[in-house]
């Protein structure tokens, strides 16, 4: 039975003291004296030495003010404070006498623990609720409390309270990561079109939402394994599988207690649920597709992921340790990734290249190379999707793309260091800017090591966009369109719309595409792929695409704007750069970023040329602008030769504003003037 201090109503507590219901209220309304007929009664929750027996009206106030008023409520029950000798306090020795003090406490309705303070009792109950332990062992008829069911992409999942706070729940579910799950699904759908069936692993299942979406939409094309090391999460995954009418295979034995499929059709989809450490299951088994989404960094699981992943398989990883990747905790980035970074205007792309460099080193340790298919860095996560190329030659080629970056802290110019082991006498000569010669002290820092290769594969992104349209993933489509434009370094209006799946081609992006004339047997020979031929084709493709590789990094248009000038609209500025003969596109890393192969000096020149003065009513200072007789060809030649002389500090007669700022920001233009 439950403890007597746990009651639903105050009247139930009064009954324990033999107080008739409404006795005190009736006596007050009739203005009668209870002392004549009433007997003294003790408090049921206090010992005799603490609270002596008293009349009903005094006992009623005592129960209401001392016990009931400071109670803790849970599902209609009140856990009142108890002074009975349930929780003895260590006795105090004073002289020859021993005083045994009984401490006030609460009795937990769920686990029968005794808690001293009210705030501690509230926290104790909340911990039970966060773990899903809401049924009391004392309540004979517990109040039914159903778990919240969320729906995403036609998949239902049950979640625990505080499901979006990983520190307070075992089954973490973040609704803000919906876009991340859609991108991973599109990548898996593209791989499923290349060869069937494929074995895929969700190494950190939590609620199992991602693996359920794979199995529900791709059906027989994939064999899904959902893993988690937490027992409560494994139980939750099994319940969500039954909720979506999926069979569960647990510990190599099929669960016979599955729900009926309904609609007269039997769903043959089976999801395997395992309870292992992620490193263990990736060491024991081989997979075609592996997704890693731990809480924080994923570097601890990269070696295991690349150890047994099959050739031409895909490894995707989501890193949520953005404080270190986005240069807010630089010492953590150095500890986890071995990279030296600072906060720059292109910090999101810097984070993606840091993760890819760690992936490349892990794959190279397993004699495997990588081909980056997709790299996305948004507010909450960094997503990287790579294809695995088995062999020491691809591993060497990938490892050579890890370089250091020279970053100028004055003008934000940047360039990757040249290949080779020889020590540069003056590394500043590699930078296109001349800040080191015109500014005092050391003006540049070395960042990295970073991935210096491409971040996107255009053909793979086009097929992902096709799958997103086919499955109705509306949130992923705008981002994928931006990624395709960014990979091709073109604007959206110039984006070609031809079908990504060409039946006449059996090879695209270094992999085989299944056509009606081919079968799965042509890709699988006793579990082994035709790796040599595919790797040769991939190498040829990479050599042919090196010239068309998108430019590294981007410039923020606001970062390089001039005070007192109105910048042109971003789309118009892209057209101006394109008319000047440069490749240009927008970037998903920064909504105001411009990815272009134009040097920073020419970028600033064109921005200044098409900026208009900002006039306020009757302002005395005129705008700063370049003289009209400076031609773009002369500016480009001056920037390329680096022979611009020191700018003279001129003063406008009308405005009285010196050209110091202009000379500092645009040394080439001022020198030409």
From TrEMBL:
Native organism: Cariama cristata
According to the entry, every stretch annotated as the C2H2-type domain falls at: 108-128
Query: What are the protein's GO molecular function terms?
Result: tRNA (guanine) methyltransferase activity; tRNA binding; zinc ion binding
Chief location bin:
nucleus
Q: Which residues form the signal peptide?
A: none
Q: Which family does it belong to?
A: Belongs to the class I-like SAM-binding methyltransferase superfamily. Trm1 family.
Q: Which GO terms describe its cellular component?
A: nucleolus
Its GO biological process annotations read: tRNA N2-guanine methylation
Note the SUPFAM superfamilies from the entry.
S-adenosyl-L-methionine-dependent methyltransferases
Protein keywords? Isopeptide bond, Metal-binding, Methyltransferase, Nucleus, Phosphoprotein, RNA-binding, S-adenosyl-L-methionine, Transferase, tRNA processing, tRNA-binding, Ubl conjugation, Zinc, Zinc-finger
Q: List locations, semicolon-separated.
A: Nucleus, Nucleolus
Kindly provide the name given to this protein in its UniProt entry: tRNA (guanine(27)-N(2))-dimethyltransferase
The protein's matches in PANTHER family, at most eight in alphabetical order, are given as: N 2 ,N 2 -DIMETHYLGUANOSINE TRNA METHYLTRANSFERASE (PTHR10631), TRMT1-LIKE PROTEIN (PTHR10631:SF1)
